[in-house]
Design a protein that fits this description.
This protein is α+β, with helices and mostly antiparallel strands. 59% of the residues lie in helices and 12% in strands.
């Protein structure tokens, strides 16, 4: 069994176990764990913003892409760019393809979180293009080359990068322990809200 297959299997088993545990226990999401901003989180907005929004997403999630393309731009203009909201991205891969894209993206961006956000914009904008291909990484390489996101050597190094993959799987485990099991999952000050209700929730908490 290859390492990538094993990682995908571990990911799938962890998700299934988490779903079963929370379904049987009736536990609610752990708001404190979810809202704690970690050094490896990708964020946009002022770290001193009075409101924190945490969004879990997956690259292959069409609802996540729709939110990112249609809702987030206006929200960014009204709430994030004005210093009222810190927006936290957390990828929560749902399977082998998501894990591969997450690993590649995190590794290629390195510690440059601004580059990761630009890449995230691109992948969601062109999700339909790479998602339907049998070899999505080849399509992603073409996108990376077009945008100068990363060179060939770095792209090759980042495919299935063990250290990055392990960090993502650890992040998945934290999310599951906190009770986050599906994407998109958006939390405002610890309370989960539907993507369509985010603007309304922000208005309420801002007073």
């Amino acid at each position: 069994m290859s390492r990538r297959t094993l990682a995908a299997l571990v990911l799938g088993l962890a998700v299934a176990a988490s779903v079963a545990f929370f379904a049987l226990s009736g536990r609610r999401p752990d708001a404190a764990a979810i809202m704690t901003v970690r050094p490896d989180d990708v964020t946009i907005g002022s770290p001193d913003a009075p409101i924190v929004v945490v969004a879990y997403y997956a690259f292959t999630c069409t609802a996540c892409a729709d939110f990112h393309r249609t809702t987030l731009p206006a929200l960014k203009q009204r709430w994030i760019d004005t210093g009222r909201v810190l927006f936290v991205y957390r990828d929560l891969p749902r399977g082998a393809r998501d894990l591969a894209v997450s690993t590649l993206s995190r590794c290629a961006a390195g510690l440059q979180k601004d580059r990761y956000v630009v890449w995230l914009d691109l992948l969601f904008a062109r999700q339909a293009e790479w998602l339907r291909t049998p070899e999505p990484l080849s399509t992603l390489f073409n996108l990376a080359r077009e945008t100068d996101f990363v060179g060939f050597d770095r792209f090759q190094l980042c495919q299935g990068n063990p250290a990055t993959e392990a960090a993502i799987l650890d992040s998945v485990a934290r999310a599951e322990r906190a009770g986050v099991r599906a994407v998109p999952a958006i939390f405002v000050q610890g309370r989960r809200v539907a993507p369509a209700d985010l603007e309304r929730a922000l208005a309420v908490v801002s007073g």
